[in-house]
């Protein structure tokens, strides 16, 4: 275990945000889900007794008859905002005094940095380059992620759960977003803490060896099956991808129509919304990690090989 | 007092008396600055009064505060509900604008000067290092707060009807936040920025249709000198033009675009009825049948 190597990566000033994320994301997940559980208990109680549902104020926060339902923004909200600004300023000041922004040698096109890493928030994209060609990992996938985020509200046809934390009423949407967010963070984590010189895999704590050479032959799916004819290989690839999409789509369909509420929501979803949902769910949430595993565990480079592009 | 006495006084002492009177009036005013014409011309609302109408006016008649409604849901001020991440993101945007403008005074976007300017900033400019550090860390922090803001909006279902469009505006703001940070990365003109931007823009080579190494790029006549990467860098390598382009995108174009989308984002929050909650829970049995399109 090479603690010095690990410390070198963790203490790099530009990596501090990732270390912060390791603390902040679990904290806020817990913070939100705790309220979601409280809300879910309340929903359970209200559904059990329609009488209570008629009289209850329906929030997890205390409320007594006679209390004002609204507060003056000045001072009750503005003081919170002011306090937040003061706290953020203090944090930023302390951070800026204790840690210096990195500055390397002057730019030199003749001297390649190894490893040369993207800024931490794009390291996830750089890590995707291992699993896909640049046109897919660097251009198509980011576009799909952005478009997928934008269509998210239009394919979530669940009328429940607007404006309060709940898992019970919105399990599918939360799992969908949660898996995507988690995947993005995992990619960043791998790219930052695992990838070393030559973008090779060094476990955290393993010494970065700049002379390491790995004799690792990546194969295409068609090679494993033993097909040499390019047209046949393309057809096999298309069939493999098609079977994967159909199978995963079937699995996702089972998952999103599990409970009566899920089925009710499914009935409110039109064909276009449903197909869009399936496309993004399969491509980003399942196919991406699946391809990662194929590559990391079975050294498969391309599943689909065509004369023009490979996936 | 007899009128005669007053008339007997010379012109000079009358003026002095009058001046004394006015000075006395002025000192009285200073004791109550809020009664002066100057004060009233700037601040229309007296904040010592605490009745709801005055407090509401205090918010509504102030250009900086008028983004807020006068009154909000009693539970919406709870930190546990909002996490304050959207507001903190906006605050960080302001911090970055402020520190960024100061940094611009010490920076020339040319290959000869850029790196030296950073050295000068770090070693000679008073508080220069602190300034650069704050700009850097605020930028990193802003990305974290944007992500947490999105996460909270998802957890509370706040992107749903009627706020779908505002969510999309938010996604655009996310993309521009990342681009702002990325364009700033090149500006010190050091190895870190140079190689990060080289790696980043090399991906643009592979853009389908528009990049000379992407699928169907060559078929459409793309070369290293006319594709989308060339447009981004102002050349076929990361050099002086790329530095200038990064600078202009970073300091002028993207902040302007972001400001417009921010305006829309905040405006829509208000128009869609303020922040989404905490709302009373709705039960499964209360789902209204959907209006059929068939």
Structure commentary:
Chain A has 311 residues and is an all-alpha fold. Chain A has a domain at 119-298. In chain A, 63% of the residues lie in helices and 1% in strands. Chain A has helices at 3-10, 16-48, 50-55, 73-76, 78-98, 123-131, 134-155, 171-194, 221-225, 230-256, 260-267, 271-298, and one strand at residues 70-72. The longest helix of chain A is centred in the first third of the chain and has 33 residues, at 16-48. Chain A is flat. The model of chain A has no long low-confidence stretch (mean pLDDT 91). Chain B is mainly alpha-helical and 294 residues long. Chain B is built from twelve helices and one strand. The N and C termini of chain B lie far apart (97 Å). The model of chain B has no long low-confidence stretch (mean pLDDT 89). At the A-B interface, helix 2, strand 1, helix 4, helix 5 and helix 6 of A face helix 4, strand 1, helix 5, helix 6 and helix 7 of B.
Quick synopsis:
The complex is a heterodimer of chains A (311) and B (294). By secondary structure, chain A is mainly alpha-helical.
């Amino acid at each position: 275990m090479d603690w010095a190597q690990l410390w070198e990566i963790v203490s790099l000033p530009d990596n501090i945000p990732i270390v912060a994320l390791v603390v902040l994301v679990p904290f806020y997940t817990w913070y939100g889900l705790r309220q979601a559980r409280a809300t879910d208990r309340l929903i359970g109680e209200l559904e059990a007794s329609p009488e209570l549902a008629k009289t209850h104020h329906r929030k997890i926060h205390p409320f007594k008859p006679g209390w004002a339902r609204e507060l003056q923004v000045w001072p009750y909200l503005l003081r919170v905002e002011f306090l937040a600004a003061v706290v953020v300023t203090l944090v930023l000041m302390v951070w800026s005094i204790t840690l210096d922004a990195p500055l390397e040698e002057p730019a030199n096109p003749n001297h390649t940095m190894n490893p040369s890493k993207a800024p931490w928030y794009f390291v996830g994209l750089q890590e995707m380059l291992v699993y896909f060609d640049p046109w897919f990992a660097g251009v198509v996938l980011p576009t799909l992620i952005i478009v997928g985020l934008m269509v998210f509200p239009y394919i979530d046809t669940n009328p429940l759960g607007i404006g309060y934390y709940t898992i019970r009423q919105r399990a599918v949407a939360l799992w969908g977003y949660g898996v995507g967010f988690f995947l993005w963070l995992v990619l960043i984590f791998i790219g930052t803490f695992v990838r070393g010189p030559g973008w090779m895999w060094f476990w955290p704590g393993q010494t970065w060896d700049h002379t390491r050479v790995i004799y690792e032959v990546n194969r295409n799916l068609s090679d494993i099956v033993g097909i040499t004819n390019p047209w046949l290989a393309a057809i096999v690839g298309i069939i493999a991808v098609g079977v994967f999409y159909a199978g995963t789509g079937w699995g996702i369909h089972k998952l999103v129509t599990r409970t009566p509420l899920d089925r009710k929501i499914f009935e409110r979803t039109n064909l276009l919304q449903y197909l869009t949902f399936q496309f993004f769910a399969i491509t980003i949430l399942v196919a991406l990690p699946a391809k990662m595993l194929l590559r990391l565990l079975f050294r498969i480079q391309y599943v689909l090989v065509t004369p023009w592009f490979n996936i | 007092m007899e009128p005669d006495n007053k008339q007997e006084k010379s012109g000079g002492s009358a003026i002095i008396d009058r001046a004394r009177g006015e000075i006395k009036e002025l000192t009285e005013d200073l004791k109550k600055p809020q009664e002066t014409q100057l004060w009233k011309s700037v601040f229309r609302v007296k904040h010592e009064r605490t009745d709801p109408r005055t407090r509401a006016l205090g918010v509504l008649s102030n250009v900086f505060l008028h983004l807020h409604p006068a009154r909000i849901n009693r539970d919406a001020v709870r930190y546990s509900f909002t996490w304050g991440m959207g507001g903190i993101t906006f605050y960080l945007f302001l911090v970055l604008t402020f520190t960024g403008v100061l940094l611009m005074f010490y920076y020339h976007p040319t290959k000869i000067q850029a790196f030296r300017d950073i050295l000068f900033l770090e070693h000679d400019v008073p508080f220069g290092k602190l300034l650069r550090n704050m700009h850097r860390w605020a930028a990193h922090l802003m990305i974290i707060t944007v992500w947490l803001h999105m996460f909270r909006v998802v957890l509370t279902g706040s992107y749903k009807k009627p706020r779908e469009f505002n969510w999309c505006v938010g996604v655009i703001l996310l993309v521009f936040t990342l681009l702002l940070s990325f364009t700033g990365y090149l500006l010190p003109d050091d190895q870190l920025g140079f190689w990060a931007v080289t790696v980043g823009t090399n991906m643009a080579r592979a853009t389908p249709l528009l990049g000379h190494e992407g699928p169907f790029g060559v078929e459409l006549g793309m070369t290293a000198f006319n594709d989308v990467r060339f447009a981004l860098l102002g050349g076929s390598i990361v050099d002086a033009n790329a530095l200038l382009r990064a600078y202009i995108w970073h300091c002028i174009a993207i902040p302007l675009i972001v400001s417009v989308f921010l305006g829309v984002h905040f405006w829509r929050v208000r128009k869609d009825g303020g922040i989404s909650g905490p709302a009373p829970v709705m039960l499964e049995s209360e789902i209204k049948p959907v209006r059929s399109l068939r």
